[in-house]
Amino acid sequence: MQETISFTPQLAASPIAGILWLIPAVPMVASGVIALLKQPKRRTAATLAIGSLGFSLLIALAAFAHVLGGWSHGQAVRETVNFTWIQFGTTNVDLGWVLDPLSAVMLVMVTFVGLLIFIYSTGYMAHDENFTRFFCFLSLFAGAMLGVVIANSLLLLFMCWELVGLTSYLLIGFWYHKPSAAAAAKKAFMTTRVGDVFFLLGIVWLFAQTGTLLFYNGGAGSMEATALGGLLAQHAAWGLTVAGAIGLLIFAGAAGKSGQFPLHVWLPDAMEGPTPVSALIHAATMVAAGVYLIARVYPLMQAGALTGGTTAALTVVTWVGAFTAVFAALIAVAQNDIKRILAYSTVSQLGYMMAGLGMGGVAVGMFHLITHAFFKALLFMGAGSVIHGAHEEQDVRRMGGMRSAMPLTFATYGIGMLALCGVPIVFSGFWSKDAILESAHGWPVSQAPYYMLVFGAVLTAFYMTRQVSYVFFGQWRGHGHAHESPKSMTTPLAILAIFAVLLGALGTPAWPWFRSFLNGQAAEIDLHAFAEPAWLMLLATSCVIVIVGIGLGWLLYGNKSPKAEAPDVLEAAAPLPWKWLSHRLYVDELYGATVIAFYAWWARVSDWLDRRVWGGAVSAVTLVFRGWAHLNRFLDTNVVDGGFDKGCEELSTSGGLLSRVQNGRVQSYLRLLALGFVVLVAFLIWSSRA
Amino acid sequence: MSPLAGYLLVAALLFSVGLAGALTRRNAILVLIGIELMLNAANLNLIAFWRYGPHPEALTGMMFAIFSIAVAAAEAAVGLGLVISIHRHAKTTDLDAMNRMKG
Amino acid sequence: MSIVFFILAALTVAGALAAVLLKNTVHCALALTVAFAGLALLFLKLDAQFAGFAQILVYIGAVAILVVFAILLTRGSETPKDGVYSRGAIAGLVIAAGVFAVLGWAVLQSVGGLPHESGPAPAVTVLQIGQALMGRYVLPLEIVALLLTAALIGAVIVAMHEKEEAK
Predict the structure, then answer these.
(1) How far apart are the C-alpha atoms of B81 and C158, rounded to whole Å?
(2) ω into A179 cis (within 30 of 0)
(3) Which residues 44-103 of B are in CB contact (within 8 Å) with C?
(4) In this complex, how many residue pairs, one in chain A and one in chain B, have their CB atoms less than 8 Å apart?
(5) Mutation site for A-interface testing, chosen from C82, C90, C93, C95 by largest number of A Cβ within 10 Å
(6) In chain B, whose CA is at the least distance from the CA of A663?
(7) Which of residues 37-96 of C touch B (CB under 8 A)?
């Protein structure tokens, strides 16, 4: 069910919208200052980073309060501040930022979760010697991500998007001495690049068609009715309108950043980075940027849909999302690295978000994004705490029974896990996932995504139970003794756990505050919504999912602690499927054999071309010039110089010859005189004869 | 052929003989002799033209010749004095040996 | 063209030829005198009596004597070892011949314009000459006087310089 959102754009921006640019700017400036600091100045670096993000959080809260205030008075707030950046003749390229419910909510989430992770990092990275560099990159990332959130121009969004990709590369490859980390960083950058190429094509096409890249510009923006009408009127290939085609191109970029199939391969490898990085970037924020992008250009994706119907672009988004959800969940079952399980879980949940956007609209997808950000960050930070406590061990088969040694971590991790599984009523994950399932159930195109998402939910519960059993239950199989993490790490865990529970209240059918806030409508509390048969059916379905998933998981993995070398229970039962799943369904190998191999071949061909053909051409030109130079030198030495020298010699000789006339003897002079006289007179007479 | 032409031819012949003497003889004095002959030939020319030309009563040719004789005499004196002076210096009157102006 | 003219012309030319061809320089000087005499007679034939006598007085009486003096004073080398003719004398001879050819050609070219018959002999008296000298030609006269003075002084100086060296 999708609703068309109608905002009355406000032309005059409030003061808070005017200073909105500070939110990304301050962390970026802090990053620059930290870059100039020396390595030992750890406390200064951490203070600067945390302080700048705290400041951004305050402004974000103020902006949120402003939008909330407007919403409570029945006004739909959307304020934009736009300015011209470049002018080519009559065309302008404008940039700007926007303050509306979507950006306000996202701002608060990013700054708040980011701040908690920054504080967590001071504890986690305390023993790392590159502490200062870490906070420099983290701060830069925060600034760039916030830039993506407030951008009102697709160009500004793209610029910050690329910056986010860059900082992700820097942070994944933070421990660059490790070859696997360097390779993972490169892989992340290049895979997202593939998506970004399509994204850029979409941007250029949109600019060419509508003449503007601003989203909202008092009626002239590209997401507003006039531009969309123009885009809908034209047709591209394969039965798509231009709007649909551009939407799909932009989705390709979002698919890269948000790890949808087939561009998901970089996300699990990105776990090479430090755990705070995984928590912040690859769980809560950067990967969510793709989902946020689709939410931002939703008017474009949705353009042309009849009431209750859907568009081609959104259909594609739904199918990709649903497939990714199941695909990644299957692979997560057979993984043994604690962070990798969570990584595939993230990919799966991103698929859920995309499916939610496709079938249910902005509010459905975004709600899951917000709740997921909190409990996934919680889970990752908890995993970091576990790794820290198990002395840098990451294989779950070498852990076990840690609930007694790390009670706080266990408690918060458990809350996160239950939220992810979607345990009904209490936890936020249930409410957000439920909304997605509800919209899937009501999707007019097909019921297949619904069943896929249900199956994915079962798998989610199953593999999370497996993970928690391996880590916290049974016997300790690691080395040394496990110990609890310091307060700087456990306090953020606790805060996030609280939110993982409480946030659910914002999206219940009885009080759909989140949806109403985003859509600019009034939210009423209506407890009768709980009594609707459709909703009760969904509640029952979710209960069944949870019981089946957690039950099966506990049954198989419960309190047992198999030795690390022994095969997994499922592996023993079905070795071949287990092998496929644990090898991640061979997607990386497929890419290696096709794309990478082709790329390597092409690089060799290019190298040959460059050295032989272009290099040869350059050499040929050089030879021509050298030959020419030689010819010139030859001409100069022999013809010009030689000629000149010869001439001078002849002059000299003839001078010598002529000087013999001057022999000092009077008679010879006289003879010459007389001779001259003869000649002259003869000439005179001869000429006078005529 | 008119008488004037005859005189002119004689004068030309004298002139050439004098020139030949000036150009071929080694002794400086003989060169001066040649020069005197040339001057005399010119005088003969003058008188001949005076006699056969219009207005002989104007005496132009005669005057010219008389002045020429006077000048020639002065020139002969000075020239021969110079020759004697050179002889005292170089002990010879051989023109071929006097090439200090060679250049 | 009378016989007298031919005889006189032959005499003069013979004398001139002798003057330039003879080996002994004194003989040359004497032949020169003969040439001068011939010329004087030619002047007389041309009714230029004053010029003729002036020729005899000045040339034969002064110049020829002067030449003889000079020859006698410079007799240090009698006959040069290399002969009396200078190097390249052939070239000089040819050139002189060329000069004669050109002059003769010029004369013969204009034969048509020359008067055939001589007019009456002009009656030239010494009085007329004197009047002309003092009248029309007084300036050249004075200049010639100046010239003669300069020549005189110059010759004396040249001679005096020699005398000092001789000491």
Answers:
(1) 7
(2) no
(3) 44, 47-48, 50-52, 56-57, 59, 62-63, 65-67, 69-78, 80-85, 87-88, 91-96
(4) 31
(5) C95
(6) B102
(7) 39, 42-43, 46-48, 50-51, 54-55, 58-59, 62-63, 66-67, 69-71, 73-74, 76-77, 80, 82-87, 89, 91-93, 95-96
d(CA A287, CA A280): 9
Tell me whether residues C92 and A671 touch, CB distance under 8 A.
yes
C-contacting residues in A 648-667 (Cβ below 8 Å): 665, 667
Fold type of domain C1-79 = Four Helix Bundle (Hemerythrin (Met), subunit A) (1.20.120)
Give a three-class secondary structure readout of A629-664: HHHHHHHHHHHHHHHHHHHHHHHHHHHHHHHCCCCC
Distance from CA of A650 to the nearest CA of C (A): 27
Burial class (CB in 10 A: 0-12, 13-18, 19+), A619: exposed
Question: Is 0.80 topped by the overall pTM?
Answer: no
Residues 6 or more apart in contact with residue A55 via CB below 8 angstroms: A22, A26
Mean pLDDT of A309-316: 82
Top residue of A665, A668, A673, A685 to mutate, by most chain B CBs within 10 Å, is A665
Q: Which chains touch C (3 or more CB pairs under 8 A)?
A: A, B
Alpha helices in A94-153 (DSSP H): 101-124, 131-150
Range 24-43 of B in CB contact (< 8 A) with C:
24-27, 29-30, 32-34, 36-37, 40, 43
Contacting residues of C for B42, CB less than 8 Å apart:
none
Q: Check: CB of residue A684 under 8 Å from CB of residue C105.
A: no
Q: What is the pLDDT of residue A210?
A: 85
A483: three-class secondary structure by DSSP: coil
Closest partner residue to B23 among A663, A664, A671, by Cβ?
A: A671
What is the rounded CA–CA span in Å between residue A503 and residue A490?
Answer: 20
Residues of A within 8 A of B24 (CB-CB) are 667
The CA distance from A431 to A438, in Å, is 10
Euclidean distance between CA atoms C127 and C124, whole angstroms: 8
Q: Which of A107, A98, A1 is nearest to A357 (CA)?
A: A1
pLDDT at C164 over 60: no
Q: Which amino acid is at B72?
A: A
Integer Cα distance of A534 and A536 in angstroms: 5
Q: How confident is the model at residue A1 (pLDDT cuts 50, 70, 90)?
A: very low
Cα angle A454, A459, A465 (rounded to 5 degrees) comes to 130
Look up the ipTM and state it. 0.92
Pairing of strands A91-99, A79-88: antiparallel
Name residue, tokens 């509010």. Answer: A363
Structure tokens at A170: 């820097």
Task: Assess contact for A377 and A280: CB atoms under 8 A.
Answer: yes
Nearest Cβ partner for B77 among C111, C133, C151: C151
**Is the backbone of residue A401 left (phi > 0), alpha (psi -120 to 50) or beta?**
left
Mutate which: A661, A669, A670, vs B, most B CBs within 10 A = A670
Q: Is the dihedral of CA A205, A211, A213, A215 positive or negative?
A: negative
Q: Token pair for residue A527?
A: 């407890």
Instruction: Give the tokens for residue C34.
Output: 């003969």
Which residue type is seen at A536?
L
What does the pLDDT look like over A385-421, one tens digit per residue? 888 888 888 887 788 778 888 888 889 999 999 999 8
- Amino acid at residue number A399: M
| β partners of residue A241 | A235
Three-state DSSP state, A136: helix
- The CATH architecture that domain B3-90 belongs to is Orthogonal Bundle (1.10)
d(CA A172, CA A315): 33
